[in-house]
Design goal:
Chain A is mainly alpha-helical. Chain A has 8 helices and 3 strands; from the N terminus they run H-E-H-H-E-E-H-H-H-H-H. The chains are: A mainly alpha, B alpha/beta. Chains A and B meet through helix 6 and helix 7 of A and helix 7 of B.
C-alpha cells in the first residue's frame, strides 16, 4: 500500500480536508488493508506539502481551529502519474497495491486496462524466469520458484477478472 | 516474402457472423517457443488452426518457409502438415485400440516409411519419454500423463519444423502437467522444432520464450513494461 500516492490520487479530483480524505480512503480501501490513522494521515500530508506535491488551497474558519483544504500540485500529478504507470515488481501478495491502482485510475479516468496489461506482461516475464529457475535448480530452489509461480498465477487470474469487470467497477465507485 | 519460419500476415477468419480473428499478425522463427494466451473464445485456437493450415483464412496470408500455405491445394497442405507439422491436443488424439508403439509409428507409416524402420524409430522414443516397457500397452490403458507423453512422441517422431500444442496439459493435474511440459520443452529444444503453444494457463505459458495474447480475435502486443524499483 502506498499511502502518499493514494492520497494524491484522491486529491486530484478535488481539493479536500484531511478528515474528508480519511473518510474517503477508509471507505474505498480499509477493507483491503486497514483504516488510515490520523497520525499517518497528517504525517503524510505534511510530507507531501513539504515536497511540493500538495499545497494548501484555502483555510476554512469555523468555531474551532482553521481547517486546511489541500490541493494537488503539478509536481504531485507527475508523481501520481509515475506511480500509476510504472508496473510493480512482481512479488507475492501484491493484490492490495494493484487494487488501489485500479481504483485510483478509474476515479481519475485514466486507462486502468492499460496498467493491468502492462502489469500482466511483467508478471508473465517473471514467471518465465521462475520457470527457468525451477528447472535448473535443486529441489529446494524449485519449490521456492513454485511458491512464487502459484502466487503470480493467482495475481494474473485476478488481473484478468478485474480487466473484464472495469466498467462495472467504475460505476460502483463513481463519486 | 518473409524470413520467419511461419508467419501469419494480417489474417482474418469468420465463422458465419462471428469474427474469430481480425488482422492478426504473428511471426515464429525456427526453434521459437511461442505461447498464445487469451480467455476462452478469444480466437487463440482459431489462430493455431489457421497457422497450421487446418482452417483456410478469409483475408491475409500465412507463410511457411517462404511459401504461401493458404494458397496450397488441400492435398499439398495435408502432405505438408504430415511432414513438417506435429500436433498435441488436450485429449483424444491417440487411437485407443492401438498400442503405444503403434500410435507413435503411425505418422511414419502414413508418410510411407517402411514398417521395420518406422517401428525402430518409434521404439527409440520410449526411453526419452520415460515410458520404457510400455511399448505394447494399449493407449486406452495408460494414465493421462503417460498418454500425453505418447502424444508428444507421436507429434515429434517425424522431426517436424513446428509443433502445434493446444492446451497440452489441460486434462492433467498440476504436477503431471508440469512434468509433461518439462518433457515437451526439453524434447523440442533437442529436436530444434518451433512450438505454437495455445494455453489459458500462465504457468504453462511460462515455459515459452515469449507470449502472444489474443483478445476478441485481435493480437495484443503488450507494451514494453519497466519494472518498478
Amino acid at each position: 500500500m502506498n499511502i502518499p500516492s493514494t492520497l494524491l490520487g484522491l486529491l486530484e479530483a478535488e481539493p479536500s480536508h484531511g478528515y474528508e480524505l480519511k473518510r474517503e480512503y477508509d471507505n474505498l480501501f480499509a477493507d483491503n488493508g486497514r483504516p488510515l490513522s490520523f497520525g499517518q494521515l497528517y504525517g503524510t500530508l505534511s510530507r507531501l506539502e513539504r515536497d511540493g506535491q500538495i499545497a494548501v488551497h484555502d483555510l476554512e474558519s469555523g468555531g474551532g481551529p482553521d481547517r486546511k483544504r489541500y490541493a494537488i500540485t503539478a509536481t504531485g500529478v507527475t508523481q501520481l502519474e509515475e506511480w500509476l504507470t510504472k508496473p510493480e515488481r512482481p512479488e507475492p501478495l501484491l493484490q492490495a497495491v494493484l487494487f488501489v491502482k485500479v481504483v485510483i485510475a478509474l476515479l481519475s479516468d485514466r486507462p486502468a486496462a492499460e496498467y493491468l496489461e502492462a502489469q500482466r506482461a511483467v508478471h508473465l516475464a517473471r514467471m518465465r524466469e521462475l520457470t527457468a529457475m525451477r528447472k535448473s535448480g535443486p529441489l529446494s530452489r524449485s519449490l521456492l520458484a513454485d511458491y512464487g509461480l502459484f502466487h503470480l498465477d493467482a495475481d494474473l487470474r485476478w488481473m484478468e477478472l478485474t480487466a473484464a469487470r472495469l466498467d462495472q467497477l467504475r460505476k460502483e465507485i463513481e463519486r | 516474402m518473409t524470413t520467419a519460419l511461419l508467419h501469419a500476415d494480417a489474417i482474418g477468419k469468420s465463422f458465419g457472423q462471428t469474427l474469430a480473428l481480425h488482422d492478426a499478425t504473428v511471426q515464429i522463427a525456427a526453434g521459437d517457443i511461442v505461447a498464445v494466451m487469451g480467455p476462452s473464445g478469444s480466437g487463440k485456437s482459431t489462430l493455431l488452426h489457421c497457422l497450421a493450415g487446418i482452417f483456410a483464412v478469409d483475408t491475409g496470408a500465412v507463410w511457411f518457409e517462404g511459401r504461401r500455405l493458404d494458397q496450397l491445394s488441400d492435398s499439398a497442405r495435408t502432405k505438408l502438415r504430415r511432414s513438417a507439422f506435429g500436433f498435441v491436443f488436450q485429449f483424444g488424439q491417440l487411437v485407443p485400440e492401438l498400442t503405444a508403439i503403434d500410435n507413435i509409428a503411425l505418422p511414419l507409416l502414413l508418410g510411407g516409411v517402411r514398417n521395420r524402420d518406422a517401428y525402430a524409430r518409434a521404439g527409440s522414443w520410449f526411453p526419452r519419454l520415460g515410458l520404457d516397457g510400455l511399448e505394447h500397452r494399449r493407449t486406452g490403458e495408460l494414465s493421462g500423463g503417460q498418454a500425453q507423453r505418447i502424444a508428444i512422441g507421436r507429434a515429434l517422431v517425424t522431426s517436424p519444423k513446428v509443433l502445434f500444442a493446444d492446451e497440452p496439459t489441460g486434462a492433467l493435474d498440476s504436477l503431471t502437467g508440469e512434468n509433461v511440459m518439462d518433457l515437451l520443452v526439453d524434447t523440442v529444444r533437442a529436436e530444434g522444432s518451433a512450438v505454437v503453444l495455445v494455453t489459458h494457463d500462465a504457468r504453462v505459458a511460462s515455459h515459452a520464450d515469449r507470449v502472444v495474447t489474443v483478445h476478441d480475435g485481435r493480437i495484443c502486443d503488450p507494451r514494453t513494461a519497466e519494472v518498478g524499483a
